Amino acid sequence: MWKCAKFYALRGFYFFDRNPELFNIILDFYRNNEVHIPSGTCGSLVEKELEFWKIPFEGIAECCRSRFLNFENELETIKKIKHAFDMHNTTELGVVEAKQSWFNWIWLFLEEPLTSTPAKVYNIIYILVVVLSAIMAFLFTCEEMREQYIDIDTLINVTTAAGFNVYTDRNNPKDVLHATTILPICRYTLDRCFLVFFTLEYFIRLIVCPSKIEFLKNWLNIMDLILNVSMWTRFCLELNMTLVMNSYTAAWIFGMSYCMISLRLIRIFRIYKQYLELRVLLLSLKTSFKELLLSLVTFIVISALFANFIYYAEFQEPSTFPSSFSGLLWSVVTMTTVGYGDVYPKSTPGKIVGCICAICGLLILAMPIAIIATNFSNYYQKMKDISKFKKKVNSSPKQNRISGNAVGNKAFNNC
Amino acid sequence: MWKCAKFYALRGFYFFDRNPELFNIILDFYRNNEVHIPSGTCGSLVEKELEFWKIPFEGIAECCRSRFLNFENELETIKKIKHAFDMHNTTELGVVEAKQSWFNWIWLFLEEPLTSTPAKVYNIIYILVVVLSAIMAFLFTCEEMREQYIDIDTLINVTTAAGFNVYTDRNNPKDVLHATTILPICRYTLDRCFLVFFTLEYFIRLIVCPSKIEFLKNWLNIMDLILNVSMWTRFCLELNMTLVMNSYTAAWIFGMSYCMISLRLIRIFRIYKQYLELRVLLLSLKTSFKELLLSLVTFIVISALFANFIYYAEFQEPSTFPSSFSGLLWSVVTMTTVGYGDVYPKSTPGKIVGCICAICGLLILAMPIAIIATNFSNYYQKMKDISKFKKKVNSSPKQNRISGNAVGNKAFNNC
Amino acid sequence: MWKCAKFYALRGFYFFDRNPELFNIILDFYRNNEVHIPSGTCGSLVEKELEFWKIPFEGIAECCRSRFLNFENELETIKKIKHAFDMHNTTELGVVEAKQSWFNWIWLFLEEPLTSTPAKVYNIIYILVVVLSAIMAFLFTCEEMREQYIDIDTLINVTTAAGFNVYTDRNNPKDVLHATTILPICRYTLDRCFLVFFTLEYFIRLIVCPSKIEFLKNWLNIMDLILNVSMWTRFCLELNMTLVMNSYTAAWIFGMSYCMISLRLIRIFRIYKQYLELRVLLLSLKTSFKELLLSLVTFIVISALFANFIYYAEFQEPSTFPSSFSGLLWSVVTMTTVGYGDVYPKSTPGKIVGCICAICGLLILAMPIAIIATNFSNYYQKMKDISKFKKKVNSSPKQNRISGNAVGNKAFNNC
Amino acid sequence: MWKCAKFYALRGFYFFDRNPELFNIILDFYRNNEVHIPSGTCGSLVEKELEFWKIPFEGIAECCRSRFLNFENELETIKKIKHAFDMHNTTELGVVEAKQSWFNWIWLFLEEPLTSTPAKVYNIIYILVVVLSAIMAFLFTCEEMREQYIDIDTLINVTTAAGFNVYTDRNNPKDVLHATTILPICRYTLDRCFLVFFTLEYFIRLIVCPSKIEFLKNWLNIMDLILNVSMWTRFCLELNMTLVMNSYTAAWIFGMSYCMISLRLIRIFRIYKQYLELRVLLLSLKTSFKELLLSLVTFIVISALFANFIYYAEFQEPSTFPSSFSGLLWSVVTMTTVGYGDVYPKSTPGKIVGCICAICGLLILAMPIAIIATNFSNYYQKMKDISKFKKKVNSSPKQNRISGNAVGNKAFNNC
Fold it and tell me: Three-state DSSP class for C370?
């Protein structure tokens, strides 16, 4: 330690080339045996100082430890945000290696809307196609958009006569609708076009992506894969309806493949690539994941508790809560303050349980919401600061941009 | 740089006339090659120091960058608030040019209630008239406030006999009410007076306003224009009911002109001109606009997703969710925790989707609400600080009010 | 200014007996013509410094003005809290003047539970009596708690025969209940006791209170007065039921006097006198009153707007929203996310308006709630700090308790 | 005081070995008779300084008192968190005394999942058993999971013939279900196993616990005891059904013992021992307990007030709110914005009361929720800081780990 200090023999004192204000803190440590950090001082400076004077971290007083860690939390947040926004940079690194290749250009064009104007335009077109295909998925289920080709009685007679195993449920209007109507030909064709477009786009991206493993691990791509597989399954089964009508398994697969259409909407999250604000939203959800999960567990346990309570509280009431399970939806709906009103307590003990349940729900949900909201505000502010700082740096006069070291050396050389 | 420093040859040192505490920061930069800013120090001072010592902004350590930008965020907020409250000042500039003209006086009288007491009184009267006209618009639709002049059977016979195209829907009590009753004469006259008053007021403001383009771009004035046009359209069509009864287009326009009456209420927002608190409320909504829009997109995408999920989850249930569209209102109503209970899941998979939907809604809505609430608190506090500071300055003794420079010079001259 | 400085002629410098760190700020003002305040420095010190150096407040840079005012906001908050908790102190001042008098002792006994243990005990008894009387008011309305003395047919026959003007509505079970049943004699007597107790208590407090005007202006006492008057009115009218049955005015007054029983519950707020936490709750509501009122206006205007929109959006739907007024409850219920489900939009345009309404409501309500929550947290923390500080001062060794000045003088004299 | 200072006779000044920056504050006290604390400075340093200079705490200016107490609040929070997480440490102390004994090992194994890997595994198994037993409790109430052994008519005939006192209510399907069906034998056996397991586990823990009193006072153990007793009661009564059918008391106890099954779920809170995040959640609920209770009182008083108001407001409406009590659930359901819609105001005055009630509820609930959310964020951040600091200390090089004093001495000795 003392080697760092210059000893000015004549004048009779050691000279430590350290920040005098921080030395105050160090001196206080020797006075009180505790390091107290002024809240203004950046923790990283203190850390360097402690290391220089070989003071262990335990020397920091308990009341100042959070303060000391502040800068690390800040750096961590910044790192997380930069990581979330840095897809470009990592791919730009790839650019250096394979700038000449077409693959990389296509990859950036398809995946990174912020890298070039055509990519941005393509992304908007892509999103419009997704919105259109999602609207199509909605229209599939509307009676007005479908054309009847057979009436229900004929259908049932035919299927019965043919000895098929899977029948249409005459009492379920939704089932009847799907069985007796078909899409008009134009919409059918459009849906096939989407099928081809999405499959092609997926395979092109798979081919040109820099890292196949990263690509296949990304949950958006997994969704894409599931969606494509389900669309092709549906396509194949539609060519072979007899199979669907004979085998329950095939019918179930056919139903599931219809259900998967919903996933089309998830593609719209591609819009998140274009807006930093939305990336922050995702990031803050991801960061709070563990806390959310644990809050969810608490929420479920407590709602299960109330489900059970309400069952026994309403036991004397014949018309409500036939089993504990029916109390489960009620307690979730009450605790989230949705309150549909399809089931509600009718007896006095049940009403009391209901009131307690509603208040408990508000209090328990306040906590995860507080975490989410705090994290989001925090990340959002930091994100804005980072981009503002970048702008400020870019707008400052260029001749000034000599690295700190250079400035330092020049300055000292001038002395 | 060194030119700024005075060299005291005899004593052998350079004298930089800079803040010694900030110099500590600069020295640290030469020690560690990083600028760490104590949180207490105002960023603008640091900025000046960095410029003086020609240290680029990149030299600021990552953990201290937000801290450094703090002062800019603050200045930005203050600028926004001042801009939102500064209508006077910009128009006062107009005052200088045309103080003699009547136009400006009328403009201030009509538009800026805070400039004079008569203007304030006029504004209150104006708001009362608006409230009265809005109440009138409500009363239009009440059965008790209207007088029957014909019964529905006669009306249908007459219109059928006359060969009109547009018939009254006998099963819709609201349609019947509007067709068979008229307003009593006194209320009818009052409504005409409002029509004249609002039109006159609009044209006077248009004539006297300092900048026609600004005036026509203001959304409140656009609303006023739409409202006036629709009121006159209605007036003209009422004089010529035969046209309305023969042409579907005319009937539709007539209906729309009725609907536009709702816009009367928007005029009440003139009250915002009188209360700074309400201007802050508007300002914080405007500032958070982009974030709100993106949150809204997320919200819509996720509610569309759940609308689709619930449709397939409830497919086996005949009585609920006839199409995906009907699931859309349900998912919005669930995610905002309104929960009317007109539609709700009945099957077990549907109930599970419902529970997840309610919890997702709470979490997603927590984020835009956090932004709005934070912005509002922030702006509100600043607004109060600005007006408090103004009061403080005004209440301090007048003789002290010499500009800083003068004080400085005098002080140094005295030395 | 220079008179304050001592001129050390020999050494050749002026000596200003001022804080050296703050002098840095002052010097910066002469360098940059702006005062920047380090966030750590207490604003009141800066104020003194500015006054000493005769620098006007305008010299404070815009980015540091909020920071400068911080200490004033803090002092204001503390003053408000102390004022809210200081009833004692003001009455203690009264104690000095009239310590011998019984009046003051009774006043403190009745009104200030925190001044002595018997007062605390009395307050708890008082609250129990109030709770009992409130429960009685609830029981009044229960069928099981009343005794029938006449059946409804006889009653109507009798009243018709007697030629009374006010009849019981046979179709309204609540009206029938009140007309055909009476309270059992024990409960009736108990209610009379409460009447006497509350009236006596009110007059005793009125007689012994230090300031009659303050007493009569207090809203809790106004409520008490209304309650007592209504209780006596009811008592008088019950002795003379024939009058009630003949005059509509008397019947209406009788009804109102029943309704006023609800106010009994307000007396429970006396519990607020015993818990500082609850006083803070009231205080923060009172402080945010103006903001709440303006938010309420915004809320009402926007819900009226949506009430009108929904009426026209649902015009084609025969069964919903017969008039704009019926839309008003719907829009309030939707915007607060209560969502009873008694009325809800059924047509597609109505559903869209409904969704927008729900989201608008959440956003608009987020703002007043943010104010309330922030104010409450703030006041609550301060309240806890104040009482903690008091404890700390009281627990510190007594011999140290010499006033600052004395210490200062002693210290300097020792020099 | 002056004894602490060294008097350097020759040079003519006193030397106080104190922090020079804090001395500034002290000097200011002698100038202004008030201590102003820079926000950056840690309060504990200031406290020491004030004690050294014998300045009473009252000398601290009012605007700086909260700031001064900051460090105490921080220390308190840290202490609370450490206490909540320190079960280990207190039991580790026990380890020292009785390390050889089996008891302690078993205690740590059963109670502290974070102390060893087998304990963690056991805890997970335990939780799985609890979840299974809780699911069993749910399944008890499902019709599908039970086997009918008698039909309802036979049952009633038999019980009537046998002259039993307790009959099954034929109109209550839940009662009929429980009376006419039994559990299948396998599930019955499983339930008996749980009974044995939980009883054994309870007694083992009771035997090995270090402090019996602490153990019996813990509310989780009280719940366990209640649960075990109720399970054994049920077991005994099931062996003797004739008693249940003859005595109303026995039937009631039997019913209660069923109801207590719900408490099984509470055992899942053992999961809280494994996750620090969940302990923080509990801690923040516990810390805010007093405030929550008082908010709850306010909430109940105001909902009772609205219950009464709505009764009188809806008096003319025959179909709603038959008594004030029925208004109580309505007002709680409205104020928490649940809004089932089973009861809602129908008359105009009732609707107005309803709107006010909803808005009041939102405002009143905002305050306790703000406390909970703030406390939780605060504790959560601190908890993360504490564990981060621990990691940082552990990861710093070991040779540095000499205690502060030693370092200090060494350093000074070297001088």
Answer: helix
CA distances from D164 to C415, D167, D169, D247 (A): 100, 7, 14, 8
Percentage of chain A modeled with pLDDT above 90: 6
The two beta strands, C6-8 and B181-182, are: unpaired
d(CA C117, CA C108): 11
Shortest Cα distance from C80 to chain A (angstroms)? 28
Question: Model ipTM?
Answer: 0.85
Measure the CA angle with vertex A64, ends A62 and A68; round to 5°: 120
In whole angstroms, what is the distance from residue B344 CA to residue A342 CA?
8
Cα–Cα distance for residue pair B135/B138, rounded to 1 Å: 5
- pLDDT-derived band at D318, boundaries 50, 70, 90: confident
Is there a contact between D142 and A323 if contact means CB atoms under 8 Å apart? yes
Determine the Cα–Cα distance for residues C203 and D329; give it in Å rounded to an integer: 36
Q: Are C183 and C148 a contacting pair, CB within 8 Å?
A: no
Q: What is the pLDDT of residues D257-280, one digit of tens each?
A: 877 877 788 888 777 777 777 888
Average pLDDT, chain A: 81
CB D333 within 8 Å of CB D339: yes
What does the block give as tokens for C118?
């018997």
- Asked whether B91 and B189 are in contact (CB, 8 A), the reply is no
Contact criterion met (CB < 8 Å) for A64 and D42: yes
Q: A142-159: per-residue pLDDT in tens?
A: 887 788 888 888 888 888
Put simply, whether D4 touches C (Cβ < 8 Å) is no
What is the pTM for the complete model shown?
Answer: 0.86
On whether any CB of chain C is under 8 Å from the CB of B48, the answer is yes
Decide: residue C348, CB within 10 A, 0-12 exposed, 13-18 middle, 19+ buried: middle
- Rounded distance, CA D165 to CA D161, Å? 11
**Which of A369, B168, C262 minimizes the C-alpha distance to D372?**
A369
Residue A225 tokens, joined:
């894969």
The answer to whether the CB of B277 falls within 8 A of the CB of C294 is: yes
Indicate the residue of C78, C266, C392 with minimum beta-carbon distance to D62.
Answer: C78
Q: Strands B6-8 and A181-182, how do they pair?
A: unpaired
Residues of chain B with pLDDT under 50: 1, 88-96, 98-99, 399-415
- Binning pLDDT at 50, 70 and 90, where does residue A397 land? low
Q: Which residues are CB-contacts of D320 (< 8 A; sequence separation ≥ 6)?
A: D314, D343, D344, D345, D346, D347, D350
Structure confidence at residue B398 (pLDDT): 54
Farthest CA pair distance, chain D: 116
Chain D within 8 Å of A55 (Cβ-Cβ)?
A: yes
pLDDT band at D93 (very low <50, low <70, confident <90, very high): very low
Q: At what angle do helices A65-85 and A348-395 cross, to 10 degrees?
A: 80
Nearest to B384 by CA among B84, B89, B81, B114: B81
Written as six digits, the tokens of A45 are 């400076």
Provide the angle, in degrees to the nearest 10, between the axes of the packed helices D65-85 and C348-395.
Answer: 100
Q: Name the one residue in this structure whose structure tokens are 């620090």.
A: D276
Q: Give yes or no for D40 touching B (CB within 8 A).
A: yes
- Supply the DSSP symbol for A374: H
Q: Which of B38, B40, B339 sits opposite D339 (nearest CB)?
A: B339
CB contact under 8 A, A344 and D339: no
For C207-218, what is each residue's pLDDT tens digit? 888 778 888 888
pLDDT beyond 60 at D91: no
Q: How confident is residue C168, by pLDDT bands cut at 50, 70 and 90?
A: confident
Nearest CA in chain A to D383: A66
C189's tokens: 């007597």
State the DSSP string of A249-274. HHHHHHHHHHHGGGGGGGGGGGGGGT
pLDDT(C195) > 80: yes
